[in-house]
Amino acid sequence: MTAKAGAVVTGAGRGVGKLVARMLVERGHTVMVTDVDEATATATATELGAIARVLDVRDDEAVAAARDEIVARAGRLDVWVNNAGVLVTGPAWEQDAATRRLMVEVNALGTINGTVAAIQAMRGRGGGHVVNVVSLAGITAVVGEAVYAASKHAAIGFSLSTLADLRQAGVRDVDISCVCPDGIWTPMLYDKLDDPAAALSFSGTLLQPADIAAAVARVLDRPKPVTTVPGWRGALARLADAFPRFGLRAIPVMVAQGRRTQRKLAERGLRD
């Protein structure tokens, strides 16, 4: 990749996004750290030697403005990572309309806005790579996270369909990759140790943010439409999706395993 080519990471004030931004800085990119929280965006950008920008990914005009700024500063846009996300657990009928809308708009519409803005800057201008941090919840049913799963299904469906549109249009130098991780030990899960509705997120391999940053680095080097982390959980998710009756019957076992993990973590005091 060309040194000083621009890169944008959404939701990069902390956690996964921060480590992805760090990786891109280390690779020589001019990186824009965006976050809805101004303080964390500024602190992270200062620490990494990056550009800070407050950004609500639901606002397509604000997303386009962020894109225009990085292009103006770096000369072109090479990488855009849609990492911003929101998780609120519980059955859909117990969540109010504002909560449901927030998840759908940040996780799905935010991904759409970022991807479209990036493509507009990449097509005919040297190409580039959009990486969408999705979730295993975008592949199969997730008990206790129905709206979250719906938003992530939308994100992966949009990503793959848009990649198909690019190829159909003869665009070969713009890639879209989805990274679909298992549960990640980030602030998104810190307060979920006592939450039975979040048990499935704890039922497999509880990943660290560095694991996802490494996966993003791998797909940047070798583009791949969908990467699951870890691979074995992705295989199980795809199996459950292919055979829904089997998947639904397996959920109570997975939930029980997740609850055991939650209790162990709580006993060890791992709440932040």
TrEMBL record:
UniProt name for this protein: NADP-dependent 3-hydroxy acid dehydrogenase YdfG
Q: Which species is this record about? A: Lentzea jiangxiensis
Q: Which UniProt keywords apply?
A: NADP, Oxidoreductase
InterPro entries the record matches: NAD(P)-bd_dom_sf, SDR_fam
Q: What does the similarity note say?
A: Belongs to the short-chain dehydrogenases/reductases (SDR) family.
Keyword check for NADP: yes
GO molecular-function terms, A-Z: oxidoreductase activity
